[in-house]
Specification:
Elements (H helix, E strand, L loop, with lengths): L1 H9 L8 H4 L8 E6 H5 L9 H7 L5 E8 L4 E7 L9 E4 L2 E5 L1 H13 L8 H12 L2 E6 L12 H6 L4 E8 L3 E8 L3 H21 L4 H8 L2 E5 L2 E8 L3 H6 L3
Antiparallel strand pairs: 1-2, 1-6, 2-3, 3-5, 4-5, 6-7, 7-8, 8-10, 9-10
Length: 249
């Protein structure tokens, strides 16, 4: 009985990122992004996604989750679900596991799936992503050296990211929509500078959007704090506010 109880105490909740999916993540990934599609479909977030995002998720109607890894030149998108056949543009790596991506990373993922090397899916990014995946419907973790494929106003995100060692973002349904971001810097001085830059961006953005009162009000609700070498940004909003937030990018 004691042995059974001890075993029960050691068995915690299952990992938020499926081990078979994690095993497919290539060692060179600099950015990881994930979506809990089951939770997203029952969340108010679903109705607020930009049309481009909705179109990308359309082929994944039978998928439960999606994980995307990238490094600037290569990418891999792995989905887990009850697939009768591979989603459009994807390849079945194993029963219930589909992937699409650049050829080298796709071949490596297929090999890992065949070998069932679930223990191979360990990295600093995956460790940082695990609590994010457990808490939110949508999450991102990126190394500070990564460059995101964005343009326009969103290009400022790369300047901010490059001041950190790594950064995270989580979006979840919690009394509305909760957005949490964090940037972990190499030193407390670097974190202090990042905090000042974020506060300046938020203030300038609110002032520049006076003709759009809803956007200005949203930016004013952003809360920024710093603890040693980490800077945190939090925003509590309603689902409809997301459409206003997307206008900034």
């Amino acid at each position: 009985m004691l042995v059974s109880l001890g075993a029960g105490c050691r068995s915690g909740p299952p990992p938020a990122i499926d081990p078979a999916v994690a095993a497919c993540v290539p060692p060179g990934a600099a950015v990881l992004a994930g979506i809990d599609l089951v939770r997203l479909r029952s969340s108010p977030l679903q109705q607020q996604l930009p049309p481009a995002a909705t179109a990308l998720l359309e082929p994944l109607r039978q998928a439960d989750s999606l994980l995307v890894a990238a490094n600037g030149s290569d990418y891999l998108a792995v989905s887990r679900g009850s697939f009768r056949q591979a989603p459009a543009g994807a390849t079945l790596l194993a029963p219930g596991l589909a992937a699409a991506g650049t050829s080298a990373w796709l071949r490596a993922a297929a090999q890992r799936a065949r070998q069932r090397s679930e223990g191979a899916g360990t990295s600093a990014l995956l460790e940082r992503a695990e609590p994010l995946a457990a808490a939110g419907e949508i999450w991102i973790v990126a190394a500070g050296s990564a460059t995101l494929p964005v343009s326009g106003n969103a290009a400022n995100l790369n300047s901010l990211l490059h001041t950190t060692e790594y950064a995270t973002l989580s979006i979840r349904s919690a009394n509305g929509i909760a957005l949490d971001a964090a940037g972990v810097c190499g030193t407390s001085d670097a974190a202090r500078r990042l905090e000042g830059t974020l506060r300046a961006f938020a203030s300038l953005g609110a002032a520049a959007n006076k003709r759009q009162p809803s956007v200005a009000a949203l930016l004013k609700r952003i809360q920024i704090s710093r603890e040693d070498s980490a800077v945190h940004l939090a925003l509590q909003a309603q689902p409809a506010d997301l459409a206003e937030l997307f206008k900034l990018f």
